Amino acid sequence: MPYSFPVGERWRRLLPFGLAAGAVVAPLLAPNDYVVGALARICLYALLALGLNVVVGFAGLLDIGYVAFFGIGSYVYAFLASPHFGLHLPFVPAMLIVAAVAAVSGILIGAPTLRLRGDYLAIVTLGFGEITYICLVNLDRPINITGGPNGLIAIDPPSFLGYVIQGNIQYYYLFLLTLGAVLLASLRLRDSRIGWAWQAIREDELAAGAMGVNTTVSKLQAFAIGATFAGFAGGLLASWQRSVFPDNFLFHESINILAMVILGGMGNVFGVILGAAIIVSLPEIFRDLALYRLLAFGGMLMVLMIFRPQGLLPARWPFAAHAPEKPEPAGAPAPRSAADD
Amino acid sequence: MGDILAILPQQLVFGLALGTVYGLVALGYTMVYGVLFMINFAHGEVFMIGAYIGWGVLAVLLDWSVGGLHPLWVLPLMLVPAMLFCGGLGMTLERFAYRPLYARGATRLGPLISAVGASIFLQNAVMLTQGARMKVYMTNFLFPRDWRFDILGVNISVLVIVMIVVSVLLMWALVVLVQRTTLGRSIRAVSEDREMAAVMGINVGRVVGMTFFLGSALGGAAGVLIGLYYTQIDFVMGYSAGLKAFTAAVLGGIGNIKGAMVGGLLLGVIESLAVTFINPAFKDVVTFAVLILTLVFKPEGIFGETLADWKKV
User: Fold this and answer.
1) Nearest CB to B97: which of A294, A302, A340?
2) pTM passes above 0.90
3) pLDDT in tens, B269-278
4) Distance in Å, alpha carbon of A239 to nearest chain B alpha carbon
5) Tell me, what's the pLDDT at B256?
6) Calpha distance A80→A97 (Å, rounded)
7) Number of domains in chain B
8) Do the domain assignments include residue A241?
């Protein structure tokens, strides 16, 4: 048993509740507002990582331009709730529109890539991510749509029935609430018919199709749902920063989010959140080594793929024990992991 | 419109020069894909490091005040170290970042993520050792600005000619190597059927390593040429150049050597047309659109054969 946990099965089941309770009290114990802000960022990125986990972890579609949806979500929220177009929609309807636009953009980007697999899909999604970024930077002329490199400012904060969210701690709870909802949605999706279809496609697309899985619809669902989560995160970011800039959505953000998913364990929602927490907080802890952060990232991706492609937490921890690995017969190919296609 | 048509021939010349260099980089992608069916995402970074090596050599040579040396001698002095170093780098990457993965039977996602990691690692290694600022190529000392011809109002500089000649020579050498030598035959055998090649006594690991060496060496040479052409290099230059070269490889038919060269030329021309007729700011959008359209409508590319199912995209 490579992944035995030192506590009993019953305690293992209680662990998520303990973690949730910890997340609720964490900002109250934080020494200062800066730490609360960092905790809020962890929630935001966990949201993104959960969304990417649907695409990469559940359905096995490697998307390395994922930040595009984050950007689309942010900008759509900024269009709907800022003086830029003079629109000031309330928070909830604005977020619903953001989610819808993100889902549609996920389908639009997913549709032409359906025939592609693995590395080709990755490159095409990367291309889409770049196109989105270039558009955000350049669509300020001839008609000012995105504000160009200067971005959009004076975005409305979230408000519920006249109560305006302000201060890092309130944002933290807003993000945590969203994260909780998205986490539950992820778990339910994973164990639903759609989720099983994704996992079947991830393991063997041909076999999944032969067993009656509609691979086209399933993949589009994965793209749409992943994009929706990112759109939510984008809207939250825009309302938190009160401004959006194209440089929030550079390629290395996509890689950051991917690194969270891979580090935590592709397909494991708790692992993905753990990955987000580690990757957001590491540079805060090793502030002096900030320059070496990306170097370490790159190295980490290589080392992880070589020594632990399944990430820190295996796919179904903590709810299902991992099947013990059988000793391989000499010369036989090793069992394939989720990372292997 | 008249203005646009007037600058078109000039843009086409630039497009052809850049296109041959894209082709050179694309060869690296295509050869690796041929033997391993993986996209060496770090290839763009190898190209970038080639540009840095060329810059370093040129700076040292100018320091020793050998600026008077004929460019015909200086250029090989830049190209050869860049090619050797990049070739070695490519082999190292293969040995340590990819081989442990595909030797275990990992097929697609694993090696690709590892390659993305390698790419980020190399970028930042260069940034940390060389600084984040741009480096300026002293192209002027090698190819003075006034070394140029006017043909029918089109300005053709000696540098552009040198770029095209060097690229074509290197491609020709590669074709000869792949078609005529034992190593080339081994490479072709491995890309045809890796297991059968191993059964026939070919050392597959060595052949894959050599393929990485050759592809990366060409990438390094391309880096030097691009450095001379743009005169400014930085540690992120490999990212977009790599994407463009990959697009070129896909356009021509990935895994196909002839396709990579034609795809590179075509992409260079398409890009120059985009600069002329559309907004230069959207030139990369056009490149990516070409990539996506190719993959959607003709994923086998111009010269690609119909691949067996397990090799398909």
Assistant:
1) A302
2) no
3) 998 888 888 8
4) 29
5) 82
6) 9
7) 1
8) yes
